[in-house]
Amino acid sequence: MKEAYFSSSKIKQLLEHNKLATFDQLWTLETPWFEEPNYRRNGWSGVVKYALSSKNGDKTRIFIKRQENHNCKTFLHPVKGVPTFQREFINIKNLNNKQIPSLNALYYAERSINGKNQAILITLSLEGYQSLEEFCANDANKNHPQRQAIMSLAGQVTRKMHDAHFRHNCLYPKHLFLKYNKENIDIRVIDLEKLKWLPLYQQIRHNDLSRIIRRGDPMTYDDIKILLSSYYQSGNNNLETSSLAQKLNQLLEEKNNS
Predict the structure, then answer these.
(1) Counting C-beta atoms within 10 Å of the first and last residue's C-beta, which end of the chain has fewer, N or C?
(2) Residue 71 has pLDDT above 90, yes or no
């Protein structure tokens, strides 16, 4: 097995305190599934939620993701492939390195045993967050005083991701997680298994943004319009008069009039 990744010595000590610092300990942990195992790619992948206890009794809630023979083919591994969690882990680290708000990876390791490829990824639970989909579906938020600011920040975060040459490839409201109070709004991009770095912006922007337009429900027309406007205006160059903006605005109007 390759050497395991720990985000810090503090996290390693916390896992050791909970007797979960080795691959075997994490793999054999018995606790109810948060997401039932998904059987595909000739293997399986599942998620549990767990509360780590510190020496003074504080709780740190985490997601432990485990998979076996759940691989995806890559350019460097076109036949056997690599664990999908490996790709997600790398993508989390890449976004973190570019200061693009996402998940926090606490641990990653993989091994091959008896011909089976196993991988474990631990991320910090986004406690107190909800998806943009959940926020928009709640009728109580219809006239929320921060609704416009939330949509605007969603556009800015998406633009920052794209300006760093990353295309999400599955960008829907359920993959933007938000937490807010009167003073602050935080938005995180999640579900990074399909995220890719691409050299050309035209390969990136339209793909992700058109998904939000076509399948952005329960976001409203005004929600998406604010998100797009913020996206166009943030970054180093204004895109309000670009061909991209014209195409996306037309797509939004067509959906609104359909």
Answers:
(1) C
(2) no
Mean pLDDT, all residues of the chain? 95
The amino acid that residue 152 corresponds to is S
Q: List Cβ<8 Å contacts ≥24 apart for 136-144.
A: 136/173, 136/218, 136/219, 136/220, 136/223, 137/218
Rounded to 10°, the helix 221-233/243-257 angle is 180
pLDDT at 112: 93
Residue 137 CB: number of other CB atoms within 10 A?
A: 14
CB-CB neighbours of 171 under 10 Å: 24
Q: How far is 243 from 247, CA to CA, in rounded Å?
A: 6
Q: How is domain 130-257 classified at the CATH fold level?
A: Transferase(Phosphotransferase); domain 1 (1.10.510)
Q: What are phi and psi of 113, to 5 degrees?
A: -140, 125
- Burial (Cβ within 10 Å: 0-12, 13-18, ≥19) of residue 173: buried
Percent of the chain with pLDDT over 90: 89
Instruction: Compute the distance between CA of residue 81 and CA of residue 112 in angstroms, rounded to an integer.
Output: 13
Q: Where in the chain is the domain with CATH 1.10.510.10?
A: 130-257
Question: Check: CATH 3.30.200 for 5-124?
Answer: yes
